[in-house]
Amino acid sequence: MSLGTTITIEGDELREVFARLSPHLPPYLRKIGPRPYNGLSFEFAPFTGRENKPTTPQSFYDDPKLRFASQSDDPTEHLVRTAARTIMGDLIEAARGEWRDAAHVADLKAVVGNAPDRWRTYERELKALEAAYSYLRTPEAAKEWPSALSRLVDAQDRTSEAAVAFDERAEEIARVHDQHLYADLGHAAALARAGCPDAGDWHIVSADQYSNTWFSDWNTSVPLQERTRRLVAQQDAHVAKVGRLSGFPG
What we know:
The chain is mainly alpha-helical. It has helices at 11-21, 58-62, 75-112, 115-135, 139-143, 145-179, 187-193, 224-246; strands at residues 29-34, 40-44. A hairpin with a 5-residue loop joins strand 1 (29-34) and strand 2 (40-44).
């Protein structure tokens, strides 16, 4: 069996490696098996993310049969002990990867709260805003221009409020993502595991953006509140221009 580019071990030596490792294997390990080309695969009991980070047990370091042996003194012992350290290192690294993902998901579950409801509210209000704005382009709107504008303003306010509400949750989620920067799961995948399968559609930017009070025009990675403010400003500018050109009070 190859354990990489420099270690190949078979037969009695391999059995001896696992005999020496056996007392030190972590309780969450379920299975060890070969990978198709080289190295080993590890199967673990599911992590909750609330356990301590997986580490090599102290007993492994204290075991005199696993301490370093030079190749010149004893080639067989050197091979067995090097292979054992390689396997334990790979095992712990694999366990840490799964644990990091589980910790990411666990922390998201703690903050996501009613984010799905808040996002659906935003989507509903945005759709209503788009409808109110589109209506202004119809001949019917000219017959009730003040009322149509009033409905647009109401829709703008509701959409802005929904954006602010979602941003409150989005900021907490973004901070969790930042805390788990080295987890393997992508943001949408982690949120899906946290019970939000539609989170791939959510507008969440980096955590530092939520504390900003000013955004340059070229910055497109802005919170939902700022994105909505820009949309409302565009609508207002268009309505004002129509008013000037048409004689309607803008």
